[in-house]
Structure formats: structure tokens, C-alpha cells
Amino acid sequence: MTDASLPGTAPPPAPAPAAAGAAPAEEVVKGGKQLTTFYIYEAPVRLWHWVNALCIVVLCITGYLIASPFPTLSGQPSDHYLMGTIRFIHFSAGYIFAVAFIGRILWAFAGNTYARELFTLPVWKKSFWRGFFTEIAWYAFLKPRPMKFMGHNPLAQTFLFVVMVLGTIFMIFTGFALYSEGTGLGSWQSRMFGWVIPLLGGSMQVHTLHHIGMWAIILFVIVHVYTVIREDIMSRQTMISAITNGYRSFRDNDPD
Amino acid sequence: MALETFYEVMRRQGITRRSFLKYCSLTAAALGLGPEFAPTIAHAMETKPRTPVLWLHGLECTCCSESFIRSAHPLVKDVVLSMISLDYDDTLMASAGYQAEAILEEVMTKYKGNYILAVEGNPPLNEDGMYCIIGGKPFVDQLKRVATDAKAIISWGSCASYGCVQAARPNPTRATPVHEVIFDKPIIKVPGCPPIAEVMTGVITYMLTFDQLPALDRQGRPLMFYSQRIHDKCYRRPHFDAGQYVEHFDDEGARKGYCLYKVGCKGPTTYNACSTVRWNDGVSFPIQAGHGCIGCSEEGFWDKGSWYARLADLKESGFGIESNADKVGLAAAAVVGGGVAVHAAVSALKRAQVKHDTSNGADKGGDK
Lengths: 256, 368
Ligand code: HEM
Ligand code: HEM
Ligand code: SF4
Ligand code: SF4
Hints:
- The complex is a heterodimer of chains A (256) and B (368).
- With 256 residues, chain A is mainly alpha-helical.
- Chain A is built from nine helices and three strands; from the N terminus they run ββαααααααααβ.
- Chain B has 368 residues and is an alpha/beta fold.
- The site of one protoporphyrin IX containing FE has 25 residues of chain A, from helix 1, helix 2, helix 5 and helix 8.
- Residues 56, 59-60, 63-64, 66-67, 87, 90-91, 94-95, 97-98, 171-172, 175-176, 178-179, 207, 210-211, 214, 217 of chain A line the site of one protoporphyrin IX containing FE (HEM).
């Protein structure tokens, strides 16, 4: 993986070493200011991001409703299938969520270097820690301006790894373990994920942990959406364009 | 002395061949085997010598024995008197004192490696086991001694299987489940507080007639009774799927027999046969009586908080009394949300300040 921070791109930009996609896609001059733009997130990464985000929203809403169902409906039970439908949506979204995640892992091998960032934490790199602490100082209002990053900044990368990679794996394993209780012993879900239940201390414990996992993800989403919007406004690079059309623009050409 | 077969014993007791065969079909049905297994059971009982069962009692409340003697099919009378030779069970047997201990020794030597050890309750390990003394010695010693030459061990109930109430935090006597004391024998866990009578006799009958352990799940419980949750076969399940719940124990839903999920039914997380076999000769079971399952056959059920909450309590994880995942989650979300709001406000102020500085000519802002 390449260094996350952008090498100095004083015009004319030095062709960045080896990093795929590091050559600016375009440079425009806007209002007397030069914007250097790079293609960062390829289509599969962006597609995954939004599918994943949608799945998570659906999973959180339906998961919450599984745990705290709507007020009782009257009439014959055969007239309704409310909880059944909610659970069905949860499980369907769970399957899409899991398959999308596997797809995202595969794309890490096929895609550019920014496709791999999500799964790596280069803690052995000095530059990682420099970026990490600079970002903390930036968020603590101790530094007037942040560093520039082509991909994720190290702080974001850490959160993404812990919550979105480890957290997703945890939710998939506990989710399918719970699912296997319905499909029964001998089903593939049970053979692949059934062991999670005794490991984590029984069915009730797995429900509780799966439920806590939801709150961890909700906390992440709050912080994620806030920081992304904040960075889009305040940092030296654009954010939302990077995850919608793939292009990230830098607002200055200062080295560092 | 040639050992008697089950059949011989039954005949000696005046049971006709006809009722013997009936009994075999009943047993096959109770074990969830097809009718074609009735002859297999009959054959086994005609040819196999009786297997002695030694039944030990540790730290327990005798609810397993109470349940066992209420078995309807196979009638425990048949099980105790004819099928198994329950040679030692200090609650049920006639003999006492030295005589009883002598029988224990005799069976252990005569049937070395061939008897089944059934354990009700568990050994407390603190103070060298002094919290449970049998015949003047700590129960844990007796358990280990009898286990040495046993063919297999049955852990009756949640006590022997998991520890149960006597092992509840802080577990002052260090009551310890059997599988954490005995490591070198196959152990069949038959959890429940108590286990259902038909489940108990079913397990024993299976082991005796087929001379093998029943198929077990990952936690060592017999699949034929513990492979599904209460929830999977609960007769109130249509109400669950429909979204019809008892909200309070005295509401309309409670009278109509709606699902008990919202009042903390643990059927969705409990593996047992209550919703199919039921209790007291199939008369009823807790959910049928209008109360949620409390998960009595699950590990740790006694330490997980309220009987009326479906999820585990988080107070042991340092979140204060009676905290659940939603309360902790909401509180955290409020804190983080508040933090975000404050951070956003400060950011906006800073930005305004920087803008101001910039327009004054000091060009150091992150952006313009
Ligand atoms: C449930 C909601 C969401 C989840 C779970 C989520 C998750 C993620 C993940 C896992 C990544 C890393 C992508 C990768 O490296 O493959 C990411 C990046 C990103 N997300 Fe989200 N996201 C969510 C909602 C949003 C929303 C609503 C926005 C826009 C306002 C957004 C904007 C971004 C941006 C701009 C990035 C790139 C960050 C960077 O360049 O460092 N996300 N998100
Ligand atoms: C972001 C991911 C997910 C979130 C936030 C989430 C959330 C939840 C929540 C809050 C519950 C209720 C737990 C309780 O209180 O008992 C739940 C239950 C459940 N979830 Fe998920 N879940 C996620 C992923 C998955 C996945 C990938 C699967 C796999 C198919 C899955 C399957 C289940 C099952 C089977 C249940 C139990 C349903 C029941 O008891 O009727 N979940 N989920
Ligand atoms: S009463 Fe309990 S076991 Fe029965 S359907 Fe409702 S939650 Fe499941
Ligand atoms: S319904 Fe639940 S609590 Fe009641 S006996 Fe069965 S397993 Fe135990």
C-alpha cells in the first residue's frame, strides 16, 4: 500500500511513484485557484459503500424492531405477518450485507491501492502515526489545518478497520449463528457458524452481543457522517465526491 | 452368574409378552424413532443383559429425581424396576448406610467399565469439597471414584450440566459442573431445572437398548430432545410471527394467549423439548400456563438478570443495575451525538474566525 499522505504536488505534478491512479485526472483553475483532482474510489468500491450503507440502515431498523416489536395487532394471527415480514427483511438484508462484504474483500485484490486501505492498518509505518496524531490534533482544534490524503486519513482508516471490518465480521458471524438456530442443525449456516453460539456463551448471550454490535455501528455511522461532511467543508480535499463519482480534488497545491 | 436380560426381568415380574411389545413401540415413539424400530428395541431387550446405573447425588435439590419418578412413558416403574437396574440411588433405594455403600462398591467391581454413572447435582470444590459430604467424605471424591470405571456419565439437570443456582455468582461453595471435574469419560448433558421426565427416561432407554450414546450436539446434549428451541415448536408462534404480543400480564393479549416475547419469554434462546413433550404427562408447560420460558436448560440462566427480560443484563459488565443493550446504546448515542453537535459548533466558530483572519490578509486557512 502506498503512503496515505499525498506527496507534494506542486505544479507541474511529479508523477507519483508506482501508485496506481496517482496521476491527476485533471487540473482545473477555478476562481484563480488550481484544483488537482485524482480518481480514487473505483466504481465497485463506491457501489459497495452505498449498498453497504443501505443494508446497515435496513438492518438497524429491522433489528431494533425485532428486539422491540411494534404494539400488538388485533384480529386473527392469520390476518398478519408483521414480525415475520420484519424478520424476513432483516435476514434478506443480512444476506446482501454479507455477500457485498465478500465482494468488497475480493475487490481489494483486484482494485487499486485505495481499495485495499479498508483492510490494512499499516501500524509499522511512521507516516501512519504522524498522520494519525496530526488528525487527532486537527480534530482537537490544536492544528489550524490537516494534512492531505489521497485515500483515508489514518484516523479514519483505524475506525473503519475496527468498526467496519472487524464489526462487520462480528455481525455476520453472530447474525448467521442466530440464523442457524432457525434453519436447524445440519444446515450449512449451522455447520459454518453454529460454533459461535457455545463459544460466546449461549444463544441469549449471542443475541445480546449482536444487539450491542448494532449500537457500536450506529455510533460509528453518527461519527462517520459528521466527520465526512465536516472534512468535505473544512479539510484541504473533497470527500463526498470521492465516494459518489470517485474523484477527489485538492484545494491547494502546497507540499505536505 | 449370567446376567438377566431386560425381557427376563419383565417376564419375571408378570408382564405379558403383549404388553412388553406394546412397551417397545411406545419407547420407540418416545425416542422419536419410527415404528420399524420397535422390533429392534424388543430384540435388544430380549438379548442384552441389564446395564446397572449408579445414580449419585451431589449439591442439588432433588428436582431431577422428582421429575424422573413422574415419567409417564416409559413408565418410570418399568424403567426403575425392569429396564435398568438402578442399583444405587440414595434417594430411591430401600437400603441405607453401610449396606448402601456396600452395594455401590459391589456394582463398581462386578460391572467394572460397564455401568452408567448418572449424576444429579454437582460437586462444590471450595474447602476441599466440605460443602457436600456423602457417607463421611466429600462428594467430589465419590464422584471421581465412581467415574473411574464408568462406561459413560449422564449429567442430570442444569446442576450437573452447568452449575445452576448453587453456582450463581459469587458461587461461595464453588459448585462445579461435572464436565469440569471429570475429563476422561463421555458425558451426556441433560439440562433443565429439572429436565423433563420423558426426556430423562428416553435418554436412559436409548443408551440401554442401543448400547451406545445418543447423538449429541456441540454442547453435549442429546439431539433428539435438544436440537430445537422452545420457540421453534411453540404453539403461540403464529402470534409471534403475526406481531401479537402480551404487553402486560393482565392485558387483553394475555387473556387471548398471545406470544410472551415482550414479557421476556426466553423460548427463542432456549433449547429444550417443553413445547413438544410438555410436562406432567403432556398436560401443560410454562408458556401454555401463560408465563414465559425462563430458559432453565440454558447455561448461566440463573445469572443473566430478570426472568422478564429477553436479553442478558449488562450490570456485570459495569453498566449499573438493570441496564440493557438499548439503554446503554441510547446513552452512548446521546453522548456521541452531543459531542458531534458541540464539535460542529466549535468547528463553525473556528472557521468563521479563520475566514475573518484570512480576509484580513493572514493567509493560513485550511481552505478559502
Ligand atoms: C450506514 C451508513 C454508512 C456506512 C456504514 C459507511 C461506511 C463507510 C465505509 C466502510 C467506508 C470506507 C470505504 C472503503 O474504503 O471501501 C466509507 C467511506 C466514506 N463514506 Fe461512508 N458510510 C455510511 C454513510 C455515509 C454517508 C451518509 C456519507 C455521505 C455523507 C458517507 C461518505 C463517505 C465518504 C466521503 C467516504 C470516504 C472517506 C475517505 O475518503 O476517507 N458515508 N464509509
Ligand atoms: C449491521 C449488521 C446488523 C445489525 C445492526 C443487526 C441488528 C440486529 C438486532 C438489533 C437484532 C435483535 C437482537 C435481539 O435483541 O435479540 C438482530 C437479530 C437478528 N439478526 Fe441481525 N443485525 C445485523 C446483521 C445480521 C446478519 C448479517 C444476519 C444474518 C443473516 C443477521 C441475522 C439476525 C438474526 C437471525 C436475528 C435474530 C432474529 C430473531 O431472534 O427473531 N443479522 N439483528
Ligand atoms: S411465547 Fe415464547 S417461545 Fe412461544 S412464540 Fe412467543 S417468544 Fe416464542
Ligand atoms: S419452558 Fe423454559 S424455563 Fe420452563 S421448563 Fe421448559 S426450558 Fe425450563
